[in-house]
Design brief:
alpha/beta; Rossmann fold; 2 domains; 16 strands
Length: 372
């Protein structure tokens, strides 16, 4: 069986333009009723990383969310909209701020859709996932197309990490800080909670040291849709200038037969594939680890290192990095942020949480010497 991914150009976040492009992306796949039954209950999950304005390009844009809500309202669905923002527990206390500042709350009010919290969960396989998956008949994921320091790409599969109970996210980062191991748990989550439809916000994407404020915005002008998250991420990798199996989550999912990564078995509808691939994305500086064989990484783990460091020029000492660190080895001392490098696991949650692009990447001497 082959997979289908629709790709539709959309140059900006004008509401009418986004609505038309989203509708076309879904219609190319057979229409919304090919995935969602009318009058059903649907959980809609965007990517809400932090409380930040839409124009910063970190969260799924509210107009893409609005377009999906309108399509579902057209078939009289009861909609529940929500996410479990970020990987640090303090954001859950500020969920209202995340929803408000991102523009999601405004859209929910305008469309009369219920905003929900992921504060209740049920164990599914290895993880406590939001119980809203049990409450609803269908699940739609709306990822933001971005680079990611640990997984290289955050797309259809990585967006599901927000389903995990907030307090358990930090525990997973402590246990699975190696990028290959972390990719495995993302696929574990995907096996437990496959969306019935994915709609990717790639109108303004992110490259470089994503997925937070350290990344650089990039105009892609695209919306993508499909049921197979592995196939979607495979197309996203091509747009980035990579091969599908350069993305560890894609490689792992394909190896488990959880989706299709073979480009010859993915039908791209709408735009031609060659017309949506431009110059390669700038990748996270930490992603160069993927170019080395795993045995070399294991042997040289103390020598080949990427660690976070504080850019004092940008740092406002807000302490978001301190709260985000799963190992609690970042502190505010004498009005300066201090990172205990000896205990750092290089998960870069601090960089992901920083609202001011003040966490950069430091390479060990050996890492520099071998050209990484």
């Amino acid at each position: 069986m082959n997979a289908q991914v629709s790709a539709v150009k959309c140059g900006n976040y004008d509401p009418a333009a986004v609505q038309a492009a989203t509708q076309r992306a879904v219609d190319l796949l057979g229409g919304i009723t090919a995935f969602i039954k009318p009058k059903s209950k649907v959980l809609v999950k965007p990517n809400m990383l932090m409380a930040i304005e839409p124009e910063r390009g970190v969260d799924t844009h509210p107009e893409v969310v609005r377009a999906v809500l309108k399509i579902l309202k057209g078939i009289d669905c009861r909609i529940y909209l929500g996410d479990g923002p970020s990987a640090w527990a303090d954001q859950v206390k500020n969920i209202d701020q995340v929803y408000e500042k991102s523009g999601i709350a405004k859209v929910a009010r305008a469309e009369s859709v219920e905003l929900v919290r992921f504060d209740k969960r049920r164990w599914r396989g290895k993880f406590p996932l939001t119980s809203w998956l049990d409450e609803c008949d269908y699940f739609i994921s709306i990822p933001k197309f971005k680079t990611h320091g640990l997984t290289v790409l955050t797309g259809a599969l990585k967006n599901l990490y927000g389903l995990v109970s907030d307090t358990y996210k930090a525990e997973l980062h402590k246990r699975y800080f190696n990028n290959q191991d972390f990719a495995g748990i993302i696929v574990d989550i995907y096996t437990q909670a496959k969306p019935h439809l994915n709609i990717v916000d790639g109108i303004v994407a992110m490259e470089g040291d994503g997925p937070g404020t350290s990344g650089a915005l990039r105009q892609c002008g695209l919306l993508l849709a499909g049921k197979d998250g592995v196939a979607i991420d495979s197309i996203l990798s091509l747009i980035m200038g990579l091969k599908p199996h350069d993305i560890l989550t894609t490689r792992e999912a394909a190896a488990r037969n959880e989706g299709i990564s073979d480009i010859n078995r993915i039908e791209v509808l709408g735009e031609k594939l060659q017309d949506i691939i431009e110059r390669p994305f700038a990748l996270p500086r930490t992603s160069l680890l993927r170019k080395l064989p795993r045995p070399i990484i294991d042997i040289g783990t103390r020598l080949i290192r990427f660690r976070p460091q504080v850019d004092r020029r940008n740092c406002t000492r807000c302490s978001a990095c301190c709260r985000a660190c799963p190992e609690k080895i970042i502190s505010l001392k004498d009005d300066r942020i201090v990172i205990n490098g000896a205990k750092c696991i290089s998960c870069f949650c601090c960089q992901e949480a920083c609202p001011e692009s003040a966490i950069t990447v430091k390479k060990s001497l050996f890492t520099k010497m071998i050209g990484l």
